[in-house]
Design brief:
The protein has two helices and eight strands, in the order βαββββαβββ. With about 120 residues, the chain is α/β, with parallel strands linked by helices. The strands form two sheets. It has a four-stranded mixed beta sheet, with helices on one face. The longest helix has 11 residues.
């Protein structure tokens, strides 16, 4: 059996609010919407799915990570839009900052170190 990548998705409590955040704040392009909202990000399908009772089970900790060229500028841009962004933290091969969507789903900003 061979598996094929489909999408990354987040459960959300209010689809309209979530779409506004991902479209207006993160500036992702909404590509379609029916019972879920779909965005394409560099060839990856990102879906927002309305949360149903019992939908969140387990202890996973996956995150959507957005690569940026200038993490300080990206964080400042989001703060102007009212988004709380953590202070960028140096890591072994780059710099990481985090934020949360309106449902508390963690999103990371990542800037690779330059060699």
């Amino acid at each position: 059996m061979r598996f094929h990548f489909d999408c990354v998705f987040y459960y959300v409590s209010d689809l309209d609010r979530a779409v506004r955040f991902y479209q207006d704040v993160l500036e992702l392009k909404l590509t379609s919407r029916d019972v879920v909202a779909r965005f394409h990000l560099d060839g990856v399908l990102v879906e927002l799915v309305p949360r149903k009772e019992g939908a969140l089970e387990g202890n996973g900790n996956a995150r959507l990570t957005l690569r940026v060229a200038d993490i300080e500028a990206a964080a400042a841009n989001l703060r102007v839009k009212g988004v709380a962004v953590s202070a960028p933290q140096p890591k072994a091969n780059g710099v990481l900052a985090t934020l949360r969507d309106p449902d508390g789903n963690e999103i990371c900003l990542w800037q690779y170190s330059t060699p």
